[in-house]
């Protein structure tokens, strides 16, 4: 048994150089240690900050805080950061694995005799889960990667969508097991793709993805005609959605999409299901669009239909049609290594179990007023604690609860089945352990005077859904014809309900009201007066329903949010299989290494490399409001802490004012890596604002390309908007209120985020040009090639007039359609048309 003094810890050398400050161990002449002799006030002690969790959010906030220096960036390092991780390695890379080469030479070297003499040598690492991103939707992530020297590359946006049928005659298939994956691999039939696509390069910076057409057969033209009609419907609805989403975005009215004030009232956000149904989008389009975004959000169709339409359509407006999927070239291990270089202390295998307030005033002044107790019983004092975990995990820790509810076990592993060990991968510790998630926090069972009651109540409003990611080599997860294999292969069960009625009670109530209105119309037998009277009543019902829409996710008796559901154990979800070889050339081509998210049937046991469970935050109207509520709470915390330091101010602070939250769930939009980065930056700003005596800032000798310097425009915009909001609150003028509109984080985000992205990228482009010109001027006998920013070129023609972009889009589509038609003609006569397309 380990004692309290045996808590595993990893400490970086104090003189490690960070990317932002290459001389952090060498204070300048203006540091606090060389202050003027006339200074009477001693410099404040260095702040101590604990970061719980080492995913991207935790690594980013720890990295940025460790990059801050005293005296406006001229002094020593300003913050001591300690990172706590419950696993044996950093969380962002914890589930990734190295691929074991199956060639004969490597097998013999490893002491195995089962090597394949015909297999090429491969080496590489598989990121689990897949870490793809679109630069258009992830501007701050891109800025961070560029700043820490992480390279990333484009991948072709090719996909194949197909159905999977199950043998309903199987004794395992019954109504009671309808929503459980089939355990018998032989009962699965993979159908041909109903939609597949390839990318076509139409300029140096633009590619367009278009669907493939089947070969035309004169004897049986029906399949070709049916497919062509389906593509027409998809293209028609796709253009409609693009036009709507881009127009509303450029007008700053994303949150008004699909909303009729007289119908919805009270600002309720229209769900994606309501948008698709009321917009009369075709089934062909929905069968393509919904599974695609269910894969983006890694959730079931029920949860997907709960998403507010503005959240999904904002992604559409920013990423389509010219967005390029991108991957980190060397994998996320490089990201974790670069971000953790300047973090002085990392505690591995250490779970934080409790947060309390320091009882000893002297100890609080010397070490910090908030005490963190870990799983080894060790007590450590800090000035601030940042939770970079899931919302439900943070709530459990604040409540003093231990994680005790295990996630479902993987469908199968070779060891459990007693089969021969897979030759294609190496299982690591996370594959043999059951991941744990905290129980639902019983908020109502806690006293209302609990120091963290308000935070826990807000955190309980963020729903999660469990998902499984399996790495394997079973090609039966792909279409039967290898010519139809694409980068992303999306499957759904034929009995799946893509427009599944969500858990949202508001939608159910609206449907009930509509049925009631229809019945009343028949009863009235054409009486206009009666119909008007009933319609008025229906309007009242809608108004009442909307007033209760602030909490569409049903709270259980304990006060926690809707219990976590499991997408992987339901047929009503999309299964995405990514061919890893297409984005990692080091994996070769002899064996297809696959990663499947939300498998709706099990792979062959001998092909399984690894299996891991995750919990993903999903979005509903209540969680959108919870984002704003959480942000407001943290802003108020910073204001109280700042006011408490003013002489003569009697503002009281509590231990809860020193607890902060970062993560994908804590930022508007789809919970993705972008939210991790921005929420980390915002918490860093709050800590800086409530610590004026330290005069924290980026090092004055930090490179021009450092994240903190390139992030300055975004921070300046936030400061200006905060001043505008404060001014509006003071004046209370109606005209000013109408001009500034909604100043909540979600309102500001959906109104201005895309404009901010353009502005930031243009600033970066100017900085890059200036840097390259400086290098050219100082280079001796060497040529420096000017590197264009891919993201800027992708949106360089964006203006406030959406019609300019639509015209440019149509022009490029004409060029792509020409290539598309040539590929069809070439492949119809039996030749390979891939040279015309980037398949």
Automatic annotation (TrEMBL):
Ranges of biased composition (kind: Basic and acidic residues): 424-438
Keyword Transmembrane: yes
SUPFAM superfamilies: FAD/NAD(P)-binding domain
GO MF term set: oxidoreductase activity
Keywords: Membrane, Transmembrane, Transmembrane helix
Residues that span the membrane, as ranges: 806-826
Protein name, per record: FAD/NAD(P)-binding domain-containing protein
Pfam families linked: NAD_binding_8 (PF13450)
Amino acid composition bias (Low complexity), ranges on this chain: 24-39, 536-554
Stretch list, region Disordered: 1-45, 406-438, 512-567
Ranges of compositional bias, category Polar residues: 555-567
Keyword Disulfide bond: no
Organism: Linnemannia elongata AG-77
Gene3D superfamilies with a match to the protein in the record: FAD/NAD(P)-binding domain
């Amino acid at each position: 048994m380990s004692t309290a003094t045996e808590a595993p810890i990893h400490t970086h050398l104090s003189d490690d150089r960070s990317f932002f400050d290459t001389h952090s161990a060498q204070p300048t002449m203006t540091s606090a240690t060389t202050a003027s002799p006339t200074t009477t006030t001693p410099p404040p002690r260095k702040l101590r900050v604990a970061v719980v969790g080492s995913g991207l959010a935790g690594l980013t906030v720890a990295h940025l805080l460790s990059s801050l220096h005293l005296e406006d960036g001229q002094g020593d390092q300003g913050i001591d950061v300690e990172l706590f991780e419950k696993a044996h390695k950093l969380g962002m890379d914890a589930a990734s694995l190295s691929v074991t080469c199956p060639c004969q030479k490597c097998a013999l070297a490893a002491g195995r005799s089962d090597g394949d003499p015909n297999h090429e040598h491969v080496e590489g690492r598989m990121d689990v889960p897949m870490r793809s991103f679109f630069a258009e939707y992830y501007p701050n992530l891109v800025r961070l990667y560029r700043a820490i020297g992480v390279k990333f590359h484009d991948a072709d946006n090719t996909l194949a969508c197909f159905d999977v049928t199950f043998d309903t005659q199987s004794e395992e298939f019954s109504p009671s097991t309808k929503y459980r994956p089939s355990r018998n691999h032989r009962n699965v039939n993979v159908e041909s793709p109903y939609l597949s696509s390839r990318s076509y390069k139409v300029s140096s910076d633009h590619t367009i993805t278009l669907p493939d057409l089947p070969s035309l057969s004169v004897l049986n033209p029906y399949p070709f005609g049916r497919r062509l009609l389906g593509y027409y419907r998809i293209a028609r609805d796709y253009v409609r959605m693009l036009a709507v989403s881009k127009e509303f975005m450029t007008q700053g009215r994303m949150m008004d999409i699909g909303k009729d004030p007289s119908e919805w009232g009270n600002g309720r956000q229209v769900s994606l299901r309501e948008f698709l149904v009321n917009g009369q989008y075709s089934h062909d389009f929905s069968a393509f669009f919904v599974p695609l975004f269910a894969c983006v959000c890694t959730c079931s169709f029920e949860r997907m239909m709960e998403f507010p339409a503005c959240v999904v359509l904002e992604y559409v407006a920013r990423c389509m049609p010219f967005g390029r999927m991108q991957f980190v070239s060397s994998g996320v291990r490089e990201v974790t290594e670069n971000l953790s270089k300047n973090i002085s202390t990392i505690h591995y295998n250490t779970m934080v179990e409790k947060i309390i307030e320091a009882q000893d005033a002297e100890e609080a002044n010397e070490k910090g007023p908030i005490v963190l107790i870990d799983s080894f019983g060790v007590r450590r004092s800090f000035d601030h604690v940042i939770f970079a975990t899931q919302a439900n995990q943070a709530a459990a820790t604040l409540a003093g609860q231990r994680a005790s509810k295990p996630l479902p076990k993987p469908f199968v592993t070779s060891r459990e089945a007693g089969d021969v060990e897979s030759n294609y991968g190496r299982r690591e510790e996370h594959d043999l352990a059951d991941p744990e998630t905290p129980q639902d926090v019983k908020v109502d069972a806690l006293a209302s005077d609990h120091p963290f009651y308000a935070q826990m109540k807000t955190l309980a409003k963020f729903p999660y859904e469990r998902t499984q990611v399996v790495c394997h080599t079973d090609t039966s997860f792909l279409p039967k014809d290898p010519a139809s294999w694409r980068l992303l292969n999306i499957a759904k069960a034929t009995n799946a309900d893509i427009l599944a009625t969500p858990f949202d009670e508001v939608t159910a109530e609206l449907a009930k009201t509509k049925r009631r209105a229809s019945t009343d119309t028949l009863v009235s037998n054409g009486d206009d007066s009666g119909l008007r009277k009933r319609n008025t009543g229906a309007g009242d019902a809608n108004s009442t329903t909307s007033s209760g829409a602030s909490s569409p996710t049903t709270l259980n008796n304990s006060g926690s949010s809707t219990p976590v559901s499991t997408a992987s154990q339901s047929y009503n979800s999309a299964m995405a299989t990514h061919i890893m070889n297409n984005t990692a050339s080091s994996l070769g081509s002899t064996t297809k290494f696959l990663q499947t998210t939300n498998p709706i049937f099990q792979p062959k046991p001998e092909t399984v490399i690894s299996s891991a469970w995750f919990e993903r935050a999903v979005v509903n109207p209540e969680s959108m409001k919870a984002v704003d509520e959480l942000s407001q709470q943290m802003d108020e915390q910073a204001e109280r802490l700042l006011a408490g330091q003013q002489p003569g101010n009697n503002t009281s602070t509590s231990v809860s004012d020193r607890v902060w939250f970062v993560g994908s769930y804590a930022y508007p939009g789809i919970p993705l890596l972008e939210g991790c980065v921005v929420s980390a930056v915002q918490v860093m700003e709050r800590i800086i604002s409530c610590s004026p005596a330290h005069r924290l800032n980026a090092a004055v000798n930090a490179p021009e390309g450092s994240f903190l310097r390139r992030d300055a425009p975004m921070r300046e915009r936030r400061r200006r908007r905060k001043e505008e909001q404060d001014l509006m609150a003071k004046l209370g003028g109606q005209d000013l209120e109408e001009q500034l509109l909604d100043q909540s984080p979600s309102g500001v985000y959906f109104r201005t985020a895309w404009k901010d992205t353009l502005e930031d990228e243009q600033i970066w482009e100017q900085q890059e040009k200036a840097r390259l010109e400086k290098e050219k001027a100082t280079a001796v006998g060497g040529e420096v090639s000017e590197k264009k920013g891919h993201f800027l070129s992708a949106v360089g023609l964006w203006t406030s007039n959406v019609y300019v972009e639509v015209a440019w889009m149509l022009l490029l589509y004409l060029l792509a359609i020409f290539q598309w038609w040539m590929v069809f003609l070439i492949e119809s006569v039996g030749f390979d048309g891939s040279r015309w397309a980037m398949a």
